[in-house]
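User: What would this chain look like folded?
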Amino acid sequence: MADSAHRTRPARRPVASSAPPAPAGTDGPLAVVAGLFTLAQLLLVHPSMGLGWDETVYVSQVSAHAPASYFSAPRARGVSLLVAPVASWSSSTSLLRGYLAVLAGLALYLALRAWRGLFPVRVLATAGALFAGLWVTLFYAPQAMPNYWVAVGALACAGCFLRGWRNPADRWALGGVGAAAALMALMRPTDAVWATAPLLVLGAARRRWRPLLALVAGLAAGAAQWVIEAYADYGGLLRRLADGSRLQGGLGLHLAVDDQLRSLDGRTLCRPCDVPAPHPAVALWWCALPLLAAAGLAVAVRAGRTLPTLLPLACAVTAAVPYLFLIGYAAPRFLLPAYALLSLPVADALLSLLTGPRGRPRPLLTAAAVLALAGHLAVQYAVLSHTVRRTTAQHRAWARTAAELHRLGVHPPCLVTGHEALPIAYYAGCASAAISGPNANATAAGITRTAHHVPTAHLTPPGGAPADYARTWQPHRFSTLRIYLAPTATPG
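Assistant: Here's the prediction, encoded as structure tokens.
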């Protein structure tokens, strides 16, 4: 009887733990990949490269170095918050780059770790290495730009969502979903919606309310400031969205696949993208990417992990749609979220190709893959090196122009208008103004009034004519620019 009672006693139900998941294995390979990624940024992307155009906008919002630049409708405050711990008290670009490189490595580690238990560690480490080895990833990760952070946020969000899908009581997974979604929405709210659309649809269709609510709450928390600001400063949410579309050339049906292809040789902005296609060696990896991703899905189906592969694939597709089919220009950084999400099935496909049915290595295929990977990395390094040199030269030209403005008597508080006024003004510690274009924030009459009180300069490119309000100002030649100084800024 005692034995019978023991056999019929109901089994005790497992209690869900609130501790962080600890799947078998080690995080060592992930930490190594993240550490090497940080080191590569510091070595290959010069910390002294200077700030780019968009970077000066984001950094100026929290920096004491220069007045805040005009903040156009599509932008969000996430990057400014990210750089504030350094930029709020230091104008050192090298310090800022180092800080962002370390954060980028840590973020990659956390994003990969979100997938522990869903893929083998070797697949995660390979995926991280593939993503981190792209020139566009290395170039933008240490910059004050939003795209890399949307990418790692999307990767972490999808992984945590799947964890919450498997175990709705996993508080760490649900918290990760919310935090990653909030990070994306802080950086670029519209991109966050595109990147998480499959998660939203799947959660609602299958009624997995906990991960779905965590996702919605994270998106809402991250986008709240952007929405409030839309009503406070931009005429409402719909008006801000419409202005953002207009500044991007009007969202609609545009085939930008070929533009993205042309931008792979290091063009940070291809607008208009009327340039030759890159060398086949530069574009080969990009053309092979969808084929390898499809192969990764086939591998996942055989391995019985279809959903963990299909979901990041779907998120990668929706994240890429607006930048491949809805805008009429290209920038390589736009597709970083898609590259991060695709890295998982691509790594799975490659590792499966290199091992036999029983897990035995295939020496010939492995040797060929090593050679192909070495060639791929060499091409990525060549593009990165060229891009860094060209970008550094441009930023130094802005710094020289700022120094010339100082020599001519344009010292803070001051105002700069005209050609490339926004970044040059930041370098000079001045405010910037424009009466037309995507950064229009002033009128000719307003600029003229300001010129009566503070040193003001107007810049024109080679062969360009000054704006009407600056026609009577004193001209000075400098390098390829012509500088027009308002009477208050004239030396002596």
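Strands lie at 415-418, 431-433, 456-460, 474-478, 481-485. If you want, I can go into more detail on any region.
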